[in-house]
Prior knowledge:
Blueprint: H1 9-13, H2 19-43, H3 51-57, H4 61-73, H5 82-144, H6 153-159, H7 162-172, H8 181-185, H9 187-200, H10 205-217, H11 235-241, H12 244-254
Helix pairs in contact: 9-11, 11-12
Amino acid sequence: MASKAAVDFSKVLASGLSKQTSAELVSFRKRTDEAKRAVTQLKQLSTSVDFAHYKNVLKNQDVVADAEKLVNNFKPKTYDVAAQTKALHSFETTAVRNLGAAVQITNHCVMSIGMAHVQQAEEAAAKIQTELKDLKETLSNIENARPFDQLTATDVINARPEIAKTIEEMVKKGKWSLPGYEEKFGSRAIQDSLAYLLYSNQRVQIVRKSILCASFASRSRLPRPIEPPFDPSSASYMLLSTPYHARHRSVYRDH
């Protein structure tokens, strides 16, 4: 039989338990001590039965004789617990084996999750590096870019080729203004911008010819003469502010 393990309550109480747990443990220890004291007192008492006393007191001697016979013939019944013990040992072995397998599976899952997180972190880091590279290039372009007032129409159209196509379509349809542009920038700003973009871009020569024909056919649709700050010496200014018979020669002479 295995030896009884004694509990060192002092050591357990000093192990850093919470207040509630310590109070419950102290109460349990008190009840345990009282139970031990009661068992000790009961062991000191006699367990024998004085049948002679009962024979003198009771008139029914047969009852006393039967009771004495039962007590004298009583033998505790023994049980073979080997089968139960074997089953418990088998269960314990299986439980330990299953626990080991569960631990291995858990470790494998944790490692898989960890590897997945590492892979996601690496992908995120690579994406961030790419975005950071793009941001650095953008910042470099911003820092090295020329001031806006130094840009030419050619620079703008080279950066946004769709502007030339849009202007060409507008001129072909006889449109000389953009919806809402005059309300925001004023009536002369669009004239300056349109003339500057049209006649500073060498790739839209055909547009200038269309303007000459359109302006000759419908003089009333031409914009008012452009005033400073637009450069009066430019070909665009001369085109929009001089009569047709004079400007159709000056435009081609300037370009």
